[in-house]
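Quick start: read one record
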Amino acid sequence: MNSRFAQLLIFSFVFVCNVALAAPAAAGVTLRSDAEVNRPTVKLSDVFDGLPDGIDCDIARSPVPGKSITYDANVLAHLKHQYKLDWTPQTATEHITITTASTKITAEDIQTAVIEKVKALNVSGDINVMLDNHALEIVLPADRPSNFALNNFNYEGINKRFKADLVADGFAGPVVMPVSGHIVVKHSVPVLVHRLEAGTLVGEADITWADVTDDRLSGIVTSAEAILNHEVKQDTDAGMPILARNVMPPRYVVRGNLVTMKIETPVMMITAQGRALQDGKFGDTVRVLNTQSNRVVEGTVESDGVVRIHSTRVVAAANADTSAKQE
C-alpha cells in the first residue's frame, strides 16, 4: 500500500485523537521496527515506542488481513508534528511497515482435503491434486480458525475432475469460494533393472519400482508376486512396465531337451532318459519320447527336468507289446 494512501488513512483518523493535541511533547520517542497488528486499527504505539501514558490512540485503519502498509518519512513527519513527538529521523528514508496478522488456508491445505474426499470414494493409489487455480489461497483474520469444509463435493471418475464449495469462517460471516481441478492417481509397479532375454527367470535383484498413472495399468503386472520366479516370454527392456502376457510360471521341461523319466509301480521305481515333446510347467501333463524304445509316453512334470510317467500307461504299453509278440 503506498504512503499517500497511508496518509489519507491517518488523516481520516485525526478526530479520534484530538485529545492528544494538547498533551505535552513526548520525550525519548523511538521508531519501532516493522510491526504486526491483530485489530481493525493501527495505534500510535504500533509505530513509536516510548509514548507517555494518555497519548496513545488509533491513527488509521489496519490493512486487510495478510496485507501491509508502509509509513514513509512524510507520514512519520506528519505523525511527529500532529502528536508533538520528540523524535528525529535517522535517515531521509526512515519508514515502518505495518502488517495485519492473518490465518491462511493454502493450496496445500485444500489439496490435502480433496485427497481425503477422493479416498472416501474408494479411489486407491498415490493421489495428486491439481487445482485449476494453482495460486489459490484464502486469507482470514488471525482470530479465525483455518478450518474449512468442502461442501457439495463432486468427483467424476471418468475424467478425474472435481469441484466443490470451500466454506470457511470469515470476519463478517462465512467465506464461500468455488474450487475445482483434477487428480492424477499413480501406482507403484515392478519394472526390470536391466534387460532380460526370453526364457530368463526373474529374481528379486532384477526388479525395481516405478510409478505409473492408473490409465496405464491395464494389462501390466502390478505386484512382485506376479513376476518373481517367473519367466519372461520375450526379450524385455529395463525400466518399462511389464505386460502380464509376457510372463509365465517357469518351465521345468523345455521341448526338445532331455528329461529324466521316473516310472514307479507298486513294487519298483525305475528311471530312464527321454526327450520332451512339449514345454511343461510344474504339474503339467506332457508327452515324452523314450530315447531307448522310441515309444511316446505321457507324464506329469514333477520338478526341473523330471517327468513322472503314469504307471498305468506304462503297464498298458507293456501288455500291448506282449500281446503283439504272441500274435
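Confidence is low (pLDDT under 50) at residues 18-22, 313-327.
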